[in-house]
Design brief:
This protein has 4 helices and 10 strands. The longest helix is centred in the N-terminal third of the chain and has 28 residues. α1 packs antiparallel against α3. By secondary structure, it is α+β, with helices and mostly antiparallel strands.
Length: 199
């Protein structure tokens, strides 16, 4: 009866762990954070916000990236306006290679009534880049920047390091479950810890 209770408790702990971690995976897919205000893909431009997303369909399908793009290749860069006020203002976008500051893509200032700026770009090399978003309103220019690293291996999408974290937690929980429910396995683990302690 005791083993059955331990097994149920371990299963409950595993279920709770997974239910807490999985919702966080969507927040981390956008560059990390527990809520939208910590989403590093959100960029303040004065009193307004835009959301930057990069896609690499040939490499990773529809995975979304922000400041860390997995590697060189054809990419679609998308800026979504948050709110409708920006649709009435002129916005300019530029992508530069850093640290040189070489301009790679420039979308001249203009109104984007649909609230979206989209441009393809083929990253031919790994390295540092900078996305420049400029709001032009009543003659005033407000600049915002987002540093981008291409080829860091970090990703930032659902297939990045976040999956590894979830897998590690699930494996640890399953190992603990096995430890609680199997006397032979418990004996082996206790023996390993005893040897390590004596070492």
């Amino acid at each position: 009866m005791r083993k059955n209770t331990s097994f149920k408790n371990a299963l409950l702990a595993l279920g709770l762990s997974v239910s807490v971690i999985l919702p966080m995976s969507d927040a981390f897919a956008h560059g990390g954070g527990a809520a939208q205000e910590f989403d590093t893909c959100r960029i303040p431009v004065g009193a307004h916000w835009v959301h930057f997303t990069a896609y690499q369909p040939q490499l990773t399908g529809m995975d979304e990236y922000c400041g860390d793009i997995p590697g060189p290749g054809q990419s679609n860069l998308v800026i979504d306006y948050e709110g409708k006020a920006l649709r009435q203002m002129e916005v300019e976008f530029e992508l530069t290679k850093e640290p040189e500051g070489t301009s790679l893509v420039k979308i001249p200032q203009g109104k984007h009534s649909n609230g979206v700026i989209t441009t393809p770009y083929n990253f031919t090399q790994s390295g540092k880049y900078l996305a420049h978003i400029t709001l032009i309103n009543e003659g005033q220019r407000i600049d915002a920047h987002l540093p981008i690293t291409v080829g860091s291996g970090a990703g930032g999408g659902p297939s990045g390091g976040n999956t590894l974290l979830i897998g590690a937690v699930v494996l640890a929980a399953l190992g603990y479950l096995l430890y609680l429910s199997n006397a032979g396995f418990k004996g082996v683990i206790d023996g390993i810890f005893k040897k390590a302690k004596d070492f």
